[in-house]
Amino acid sequence: MACRPPPPATPPPEPAALPEALAWITGALERLREAGLERPRRVRAGRQGREVELDGRRLVNFGSNDYLGLAGDVRLTRAASRAACAEGFGAGASPLVSGHSAVHAALEGALARLLGTSDALLFPSGFAANAATIAALVGPDDLVASDERNHASIIDGCRLSRATVVVYPHRDVATLGRILAASPARRRLVVTDTLFSMDGSVAPLADLADACERHGAMLLADEAHATGIFGARGSGLVEATGTAAGVHVRVGTLSKALGAAGGFVAGHPRLVDWLRHAARGYVFSTAHPPAVAGAALEALAVVAAEPERRTGLLERAAGFRDRLRRGGLDLGAAEAQIVPVVVGGAEAALALAARLAAEGMFVPAIRPPSVAPGRCLVRASLAWHHDDADLDRLAAALLAAAGCGGRHP
Ligand code: PMP
After folding, report:
1. Are residue 297 and residue 317 in the same domain, yes or no?
2. pLDDT per residue over 210-254, tens digit each?
3. Which domain holds residue 361?
4. Which contiguous run of DSSP H or E holds residue 219?
5. Does residue 5 sit within a domain?
6. Which residues are catalytic?
């Protein structure tokens, strides 16, 4: 497929003087800069894959959630074009009005089949899926218990719901049990990531499901980083751990391993019917473009046809983690394709990321608000397209930077 790059951006007009009412922003940005928390954007050129071009530099790409290498796969581009040809580009309206097209319906069906649920519902993003679903399940008379390392979209959903929110220590089911036992709330909801995005740790799904069953609580699991990666069919950690019967609300995203965009919730048809009526991020937002749904459908076909992408990735990731741990690096509870190396302060994380970039590898520094202050890290996202030599090079560089015995631990 011949692709032309987009035309260069026309520079915007010079800014006018900052209005007095916005003057506070100058100080707020200054404080971020002083704390080492400024977040400049890099401009990516062209398709990403094993390598990525950022601000004109080509680097080996350890900084993307494109775990299966599908974001730049031409099969998705072609599927998107076919869907756009058939249905036009924009969805034009929210799904309950006229935005829900044949390709959206096909994708919901394919997701429900993949997850083994009877129904599924698409959202414009994974963020919207979490935020809108939580707020549709609990309200001011209810309790929501949330793992302290959950994603921002879960945190915002909890706040939006106006339920009483109790945050429990990371993966601490005993504390969670006490919280549930002590709550007089009308309804109780437990929310957790399945694969934690900044830790690479995995939720104790079977124990969480047991606790919820014992206390009559609903369990919502966000599979954003596990969809497409775990389980015999690739549907996620709920499938891999055999906990489908105890996880009532299964959230996922199409924007990471599936290389497309959008979020979804899968579960019992009654649940999905309720969300269709009550999840405001679904009801009041334009359906995502049919082309995006077409690309996601194609990604699901690749996940089914090429299981070696996920099995190969998980195998190489296990070897990579072993090597770093044997070399003395502390990876916390990481046990998947997300490998965080915690360094402490923001400046230290930035310095390590800069050092890795100088060696030709993009491994982003992660700082607050994505992690707690003092827990800054560099986060290596491993993907199917990384070969042994890439992983050797990254492992050696991380061990050398930490003074852990250099190239051959
Ligand atoms: N949940 C988790 C755990 C995430 O990491 C993210 C994205 N960073 C989301 C949800 C939101 O998904 P999306 O990017 O599709 O909005």
Report:
1. no
2. 999 999 999 999 999 999 999 999 999 999 999 999 999 999 999
3. 42-71+307-401
4. strand 218-222
5. no
6. 197, 225, 256
